[in-house]
Design goal:
421 residues, alpha+beta, 2 domains, 9-stranded mixed sheet, 10 helices, 28 strands
Length: 421
């Protein structure tokens, strides 16, 4: 990892630190950075610094994140990299562009590249790391970047303009859930983990790294074929509150809840939670709504999601959902810690060699300095083996045995190693 401020220097240091103990060139490098290098030399310089050090032709993939946890600690500034060298592993990289405009076309572009690479490998165990450009907030004229819009007039403008801005400006939701569902259709026998690129949680811009290229509004994938054993798991600390309601009016794209129990969604949500009118605002969205996620439905699956935007009487949800009865959930710091413990307990049969973990950035908001408890739990599991947990805004896992899981405020692990048996 690196904590240097200058982009070029940081790129050199993080690459040098990542590969210095390897005896052979890396099969791949995962690279994550906070957004601040955008104003301290730029990410073009950052990547140049990385390639000043990395062996030419090394597969490299990653992007910007709000923060990360690794063997050294918890950080909201800097960059971290994981370099893996393994004699029994084949690697293929792929990417797809314009994910917000046309996610299915982006998936096909990426899947075709993965398929060709997988066909050349002799190893049967297949794994895919999916990293997708995350949501970007639309700048409202005269209002700036807002998550709560009280004006009915402005909301009426935003609602019909939502699809237009997503297509032409590629602003809005990341559509990572749609991408994840689609790529699972292409590779139903491969295990996967999902994460999203973000900035410092403002949702203004984000970047993806693909070898020497700096991308936006793209998905990048790492395909691994190996004889190593691995497993993936998703856990969350959310429990039902006993408050249920019916989504009775939903937007055509499945992202906007207009009515709950046949009443305006925001007003009815306030009533159910006994919140006064106007309680949800720019200040309370971050510090209150995180503790009241909603258990939604998608193709018969539970999708725990955090409310993203309030548009007067409507609620914008970060994933595609279905109509029907859903529940308000509750969560606490203690339950979040237990969820991470549960996740690692599931993987106790593996002696880890390395790990990739994606988790929701809202968990940092919820736990604060107690995020160090999470770091200690992971460190105790991995011991001296390397891992990276990166903060995300949309995450999940898939395996043929456990099916697809997409959730906010969740812990998602992909752990590689050998069976203890």
């Amino acid at each position: 990892m690196t904590r240097k401020w200058d982009a070029r220097d940081a790129g050199r240091e993080v690459a040098r630190e990542a590969i210095q103990s390897l005896k052979t060139p890396p099969n791949f490098v995962l690279l994550f950075s906070t957004i601040h290098y955008d104003k301290h030399g730029g990410f073009d310089e950052f990547l140049k610094g990385v390639w000043d050090v990395l062996p030419e032709g090394t597969p490299l993939l990653g992007g910007t994140v709000p923060g990360f946890i690794n063997n050294f600690g918890c950080y909201a500034r800097g960059a971290t990299a994981l370099a893996v060298s393994c004699p029994h592993m084949d690697v293929v990289m792929s990417m797809g562009k314009n994910t917000k405009r046309n996610p299915y076309k982006a998936v096909k572009q990426s899947a075709d590249m993965l398929q060709k690479g997988f066909e050349k490998s002799q190893y049967q165990h297949k794994f895919i790391f999916n990293f997708v450009s995350g949501p970007e907030v639309i700048k409202i004229p005269g209002q700036g970047y807002k998550k709560v819009v009280d004006s009915g007039l402005i909301s009426k403008f935003i609602l019909p303009a939502y699809g237009i801005t997503q297509y032409f400006l590629q602003k809005g939701l990341g559509r990572e859930d749609e991408i994840f569902e689609k790529i699972v259709e292409y590779f139903p026998e491969s295990s996967m983990i999902l994460g999203t690129a973000n900035d410092d949680n403002r949702g203004i811009s984000n970047y993806q790294f693909y070898n020497k290229s700096l991308l936006t509004n793209s998905m990048v994938n790492l395909g691994i074929s190996t004889d190593l054993e691995f497993d993936v798991c998703t856990t969350h600390g959310m429990t039902p509150s006993g408050i249920d309601f019916e989504i009775t009016k939903l937007s055509r794209n499945g992202h906007i809840i207009h009515k709950i129990n046949n009443k305006p969604a925001v007003q009815e949500l306030n009533r159910l939670l006994k919140w006064p009118k106007g309680f949800l605002n720019e200040k309370t969205m971050t510090h209150t709504i995180l503790y009241y996620p909603i258990s939604l439905r998608r193709h018969g699956r539970e999708v725990p999601a955090v409310l993203t935007f309030i548009l007067k009487d409507s609620i914008l949800i970060p994933c595609v959902i279905d109509k029907g009865t859903v529940s308000i959930l509750t969560v606490s710091g203690k339950k979040l810690v237990h969820a991470m413990q549960e996740n690692l307990q599931y993987c106790q049969a593996l002696k880890p060699e390395f790990g990739i973990v994606s988790t929701c950035t809202t968990i940092l908001e919820t736990l604060g300095y107690k995020i160090n408890i999470i770091k200690d739990e992971i460190s105790n599991y991995f011991q001296d083996k390397p891992f990276i947990m990166f903060l995300s805004l949309g995450e999940g896992t898939y395996s043929p045995e456990k099916d697809i899981t997409y959730a906010n405020m969740s812990f998602n692990t992909a752990i590689f190693g050998k069976s203890k048996k």
